[in-house]
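Researcher: We are triaging several targets before committing to wet-lab work. For this one, the compound of interest is flavin-adenine dinucleotide. I'm pasting the protein sequence and the ligand SMILES. What I need is the predicted three-dimensional arrangement of the protein with the ligand bound, expressed as structure tokens, so it can go straight into our comparison scripts without reformatting.
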Amino acid sequence: MSPWPTWPLVLRTSPAHAEGGARRFEVAVQRFIGDDTGHVRAIEIAEVRVTRDAEGRREITPVGESLQIPCDLALLAIGFEGVEHMPLLDGLHLNLTRRGTLSCGSDWQTDAPGVFVCGDAHRGASLVVWAIAEGRSAAHAVDAYLMGESDLPSPVRPGTLPLAVI
Ligand SMILES: Cc1cc2nc3c(=O)[nH]c(=O)nc-3n(C[C@H](O)[C@H](O)[C@H](O)COP(=O)(O)OP(=O)(O)OC[C@H]3O[C@@H](n4cnc5c(N)ncnc54)[C@H](O)[C@@H]3O)c2cc1C
């Protein structure tokens, strides 16, 4: 049982699963294997163990045999990978965190004076409600930076966590 409002850990079978195929657990993709012409021909997976480091980040370590699964088309459905590395960041001398995001101080300001960050670029892959709340709070911070004070709402702080952290 998980306390409300966390999800109970249950094995679900969606219609896509019901269509067929074998489900493998505790494995992770190690690499894609190509042929001489550069086309993918297999995916190598291996049994892994997932642990957490002192800061709670997941560490995924291969522990078992690897296995090659024939493949001629791989679709990467990994969503938000982090902030895209671009000349803009270099020009502002901004470095990405290990999670691919931009860090900021309590006033939403990055290491570059007068440059603020909010939303997915700050929080990582998240939800529209967080983007709106952080955007409004960053607007408050920008207003205060420019005007010395602000009456704009500031609903969240940079370190605000969701209600449930799993
Ligand atoms: C497939 C998918 C499904 C999702 N479904 C949901 C959902 O159902 N519910 C939910 O709440 N959230 C969902 N999300 C998450 C949600 O979309 C994001 O959390 C939210 O859009 C983040 O808002 P943002 O303003 O921080 O960033 P974004 O919406 O990513 O906006 C950043 C903007 O900056 C622009 N940009 C980037 N670089 C530059 C540059 N150099 N110059 C100028 N512009 C630039 C980009 O083009 C983009 O328009 C989903 C996300 C994905 C990818």
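Researcher: Any quick observations?
Model: The helical segments are 15-18, 87-91, 120-123, 128-147.
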